[in-house]
Amino acid sequence: MQGAARGGYTDAQITSLIRDSGSVEISAGLDLIDLSLTVLDDLTGDFLGGSVTRANYATLHGTADLNISRDLDWGTALVRPYMNMTDGVTTARFNLGVYLTSSPRTDAVEIPVTHSVTAYDILHWLNTPVGEAYTVESGTGYLAAVETILIAEGILAYQIDQTQAAAVLPASRSWAFDDKTTWLNIVNDLLSGIGYQGIWSDWDGRLRVQPYLVPRDRKVEWLYDAGSDTSMLGRRAIIRDWFDVPNRWVYFSNADPGGSAPIDGAGLYVYVNQYIGPTSVAARGRVISAKPEQIDSVDQNALIAAATQRIDADMRLKTTFEVESFPNPLHWHFDRLAVSDPSLGPISDVLGVRWTLPLNGSNMQHEWSLL
Q1: Partner of 146 at 20 to 30 A CA spacing, among 8, 32, 122, 170?
Q2: Is residue 204 part of a domain?
Q3: Residue 1 located in a structural domain
Q4: Residue 284 in contact with residue 247, Cβ under 8 Å?
Q5: Which domain holds residue 296?
């Protein structure tokens, strides 16, 4: 989630504004910006509302459906919607990401003329075909190779965690010339090789590169409960899909330039979910194996980190909560949440998979997966 504190207010004050205030006024605005995230113009007077959606497992995590009465350079213009909240005492602004506008649907009868446009996560800037074969030579730093791509593609605002700055490719890595290879694919392949999560964009529009951390090892970022004074929850439902879910996974790496066959603990990682949850071996009474998968990783630790991301996703997507809530514009990328609500069962740790936030103050919709 976004950090709550802003505009001189503390975390507690902003949390109270969103969760506890009895009367909150909500409005929305829109900035026209450039790749350096410099504001070029305020489009709020021509902004007629819309919504922002984030689907964290999608290739492009964010989309925005916007209604604008001004002509822009469609297909090139970058916009950043935001939400304002005030209770008369505390007033705060929440940026909601940067999006590349597509071609609009224009209603020429309405006054003023209205353009309805779907805009895509600024990650779309990287989601273009490479158009030729691409090779990163052995000995090149993984993070250096990622930064080279970002700079070459014109990305100006990014943040790279340098924890694995010393990690270099043990062998050359090539991507074939085809219509499926994009700069985004290559960046995420390189990050997977050192146990980093896929690149993502934050609420201001800055691209983030950082190591993967198992959600259970992260702190809870928000508590949703059913208390009479603190509940933000509306309708909610539980969906379970456990059929044919694997409980054994095998991942291997051929990163050794010598080409020796991987063995367990050295180029091979096997994980068996023996006891966790209803899809475990103990609960199902049998082993259900996923297809073995290759991951090009710099070492065994990176292989395990990348494999853990995939295993976590397989195990999480099988129990989902569909929930409505009062607008909470702090939500962002794979938020870890706690839910205390008798209608959903015991207190649960969940991960935010998808959310949609209408910019007119209507309830937002969430999909949460059980940790």
Answers
A1: 32
A2: no
A3: no
A4: yes
A5: 248-310
Co-location of 177 and 268 in the same domain: no
Residue 233 and residue 324 in one domain: yes
Return the closest-CA partner of residue 190 out of 242, 161, 149: 149
Query: How large is the average pLDDT for residues 16-38?
Result: 95
Tokens of 343: 């209608």
Distance CA 369, CA 6 (A): 29
Verify that 21 and 116 share a domain, yes or no: yes
Q: At 360, phi and psi to the nearest 5?
A: -100, 5
Q: What is the pLDDT of residue 260?
A: 67
Torsion of CA 54, 56, 61, 67, to 10 degrees: -10
Position 121, amino acid: D
| Structural domain includes residue 32 | yes
Beta bridge partners of 300: none
Is residue 174 located within the same domain as residue 231?
A: no
What is the residue type of 150? L
Helices (H), 97-164: 142-152
User: What type of residue is 180?
Assistant: K
The answer on 194 and 273 residing in a single domain is no
Is 226 found in the same domain as 87?
no
* Percentage of the chain modeled with pLDDT above 70: 98
On whether both 110 and 161 belong to a single domain, the answer is no
| Both structure tokens of 179 | 């219509």
Consecutive H or E run containing 33 = strand 25-33
Amino acid at 186: I
Residue 143 buriedness (CB in 10 A; 0-12 / 13-18 / 19+): buried
Tokens 């993984």 correspond to 142
Could you report the per-residue pLDDT of 223-257, keeping only the tens digit for each?
A: 999 887 788 999 998 887 777 789 999 999 865 54
Q: pTM of the predicted model, to two decimals?
A: 0.84
Residue 259's pLDDT band, with cuts at 50, 70 and 90, is low
